[in-house]
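hey all, quick one before standup. I had two proteins in the batch that finished overnight and I want to keep them in one place so we stop losing track of which output belongs to which input. First protein below, input sequence then structure tokens straight from the run.
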Amino acid sequence: MKFKFIFYIIFMTLLANSKGNPELEMKLAACPQSPNCVSSQATDKDHFIAPFKISGKTEDAWKALKQALAGQSRTLITQETGNTLHAEAASLVFRFVDDIDVVIDHNAKLIHIRSASRTGYSDFGVNRRRMEALRSKLQQAHVID
């Protein structure tokens, strides 16, 4: 009986520390119905934005993406794992925070992106412009098409 209990504890510890389902790690949160969000995994045209297609090594694209995000005004990378990244961007005047989530799919050579306002209804296109500016930076670095 004692052996089963110890085995159970070890198994649960290993399970808790495992990376989890890689398929779940590739999913971005869905956009709300409000027009203040864009996502490359959105299924409707109002929220959809094309993912970034990596043209070279995925590692180079990931490094360039982090540099480009860090170079954006009032943007801070707050979390990063091997395949995911979360950043926060604050507006200049009122300091509204937008959340930026990024997932890299090494096999498909795609970077999926999502940018959404935390508050309010409309962002007047700020999140879409931010992601397109990021796309432009990465294209200039020759890491995406």
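OK second protein, same deal, sequence then tokens:
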Amino acid sequence: MISLLISDSDHATDIHILEPDAVDAFRAGRSAAEQAWIDANGFSGDLGKSLALPGPDGDMSCVLFGWGTEKVRARDRFHLAALAGRLAEGDYRIATAPASCNPAQEALGWQLSGYAFDRYAKRKGTTARLVVPEGADLGRIEAIAVGALTTQRLIDTPANDMGPQELEDAVTELASAHGATLDVTRGDALLEQNFPLIHTVGRASTRPPRLLDLTWGDAAHLKVTLVGKGVCFDTGGLNLKPGASMGLMKKDMGGAANAIGLASMVMALKLPVRLRLLIPAVENAVSGGAFRPGDIFTSRKGLTVEINNTDAEGRLVLADALALADEETPDLMLCMATLTGAARVALGPELPPFFTDDEALAGALSTAATTEADPLWRMPFWPGYEGQIEPGIADLDNAPSGGMAGAITAALFLRRFVENAASFAHFDLYGWTPAAKPARPKGGAHQGIRAMLRVIEERIA
């Protein structure tokens, strides 16, 4: 990652962030020539509008950026990142900002705007550099940005170059960078080590399934466990997806990518926690060895599961990973997965739902989602739907019929594998930005992990 943030500069161009009602006062303090330029260009402080003021020698004396009204700003985030991409290479600093502007958050957006996925074609992100605002922690911003952009890069990489082995390579690199320990259980060893559902989902692929188990930190510290769904490509299995539904399935490891990104943040910031990262990495493929609708399997936890749709595979691999995580009674367990289309129907691509029985955790996540500009919305573990995941012939049904409350029934399924964790939350992510926005290019998306980071920090404060 190339840093677009610098600690200081002797030749930085000033940026003045102005709300509409502050434009006149700012204008009054400028030269007659600058006033005429502002008037001629009709700069009124509307959100996202920008204007460079020319200096006496024809150079740029400063840049104005419209901050808009609170009502309009609420529609999006990282507003200043829109300016970052318009500016020529050089150094800039925030000279004026209204109280409603969070300079550290805008600096993070500026840094994120430098990302361009260029593995297969030349692409260029922002090159303008920003002096980190006073009071903002440059090291913290960069650590968060590295984790966020790692998530995006992993999701953006197509499945031919991001299979279970490549996901293992990414976690191996992360472990090496931070002195963590990584244990990997692959192929038929999954059966020997009692991870039958992970093996079942991945056995049809020529790329062996595996469970990645990273640990870091002092065992005496708060036990934080992250579990991420690592389905590197999802054909749907024998319940084959139509082509239109398969096109974005490289992002079905978005839960794993987000968990990896959050783990990167935690370790880079050297938080005093005992971190565990669990990634069941598989490809849901079709072959003579594929699991079938109607099959019944016994999970690691001992619960039997009837398969009524092979395209509901994510909850299966997570079940074994959650059961393993739960065995050591973590203080906080966070599960991330691109799990259901129902979540997107309910809340769209930008607002991931989360599920928890812990009221304190729910409140902390909701608050952090707002303060960190990292949207999340709580949905219920609704007990009235428990019967829908109980088929009678087995303990659990992986895909209840009827099509209603799919995100909730999937969450209820996962909760059956968590009994001992002191606090547990499940996040149903989309993992993708459908259309480019400031600091968020079209493609893989980090979702919720900055809010989760804040909650982890609050729990150790």
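Flagging for whoever picks this up: The radius of gyration is 24 Å. The mean pLDDT is 97.
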